[in-house]
Amino acid sequence: MQTKILRINPITPQISKIRQASKIIKSGNLVAFPTETVYGLGANALDPKSIKKIFEVKGRPSDNPLIIHISDVADLGMLVVHIPDTAYKLIDKFWPGPLTLVLKKSKIVPKITTGGMNTVAVRMPENKIAQILIRESGVPIAAPSANISGRPSPTTSEHVLDDLSGKISMIIDGGKTKIGIESTIVDLSKKNPMLLRPGSVTLEQLQDVIGKITIHPILQERKTKLVHRSPGMKYRHYSPNAKIILIEGSKDKANDKILHLLAQFKKQGKKVGVMSTENFVYDSDVTIFIGSNFDVIAANLFKTFREFDARKVDIVLACGINRKGLGLGIMNRLGKAAYKKIKV
Ligand code: TXA
Ligand code: MG
After folding, report:
1. Which residues line ligand 1 (CB under 6 A)?
2. Which string of DSSP letters, residue by residue, matches 128-193?
3. Which of 27, 294, 303, 344 has its CA 20 to 30 A from that of 81?
């Protein structure tokens, strides 16, 4: 199959052009499209045959549920059986935007879409192209990140093409995604709200709106029997081929450790990369300064993983950042990608 690339101006998207993509969704096929977080791989959320294609193309385990994207808050009602007050409060504040809510699913949502669960994850993206695509398709669109399962999420159409060229009908190229890490996920299907995945809607912002919210034990690196509340958590993720070593501690100590490991691995003949949040010069084979501000780090993170792979490094040394605000989401992705974590 030839993958068609449809270039759309993200600021003034041409509706007539996007209709070409909607036709593909309506005919039961797949379209990759930009959202404000990462690129998604979309299909009609209510059609099991279309959804099956998503799992096949990504090589995604069938028990890992998908997020359903809507363009109008009114469409939430048909996907879930009940909308609690906490959901209304969060929707009011953060939709459209990078926040996904998990609620009890209604009968029209096929089990294949939710990986067999009786809950469903829903979000309303802010990106205009995504909104028009959903609206013009006339159906809610299920979309995981548009990467091969286990690879870093795509933040440009080129990343999607690298992973899925020839496997899907169309990619809408709407430029680089604004945020760069996936949406925050909050489970509201039980009595106590629980944060399942941190993102750019931060824990602090959620607490401001709904008060108490439990953090899933896995996010705190604690052993738990609650894995079933978000199946995606148990899979290794976001991983580049290079082995990432994540070093956490005070700036000085972490930097000393990087210098020490760098020398050690070079002696072993390894090709070593450093991913740095300080504009330091290292004697590494590849050094990528990812930014020092959290918004910039998030926007560059997955692209940087892919760049280390393209430059074929064996090992990447990366230092941790503070877990406040967006830092929690960034550290979650770094932690999931890491082959080893060292505290200094
Ligand atoms: O920003 C995003 O959320 C992007 C864009 C494309 O919208 N999408 C995305 O989808 O990151 P994906 O499939 O890569 O990640 C979805 C995560 C998985 O970890 C999955 O386990 C979790 O959401 N999830 C989906 N449905 C769930 C449910 N009913 N209960 C708990 N977790 C769920
Ligand atoms: Mg994903």
Report:
1. 35, 37-38, 40, 64-67, 98, 100, 102, 114, 117, 119-121, 143-145, 182-183, 185, 196, 229-232
2. HHHHHHHHHHTS-EE--BSS-TTSPPPSSHHHHHHHHTTTSSEEEE--S-SS-SPPEEEE-SSSS-
3. 27
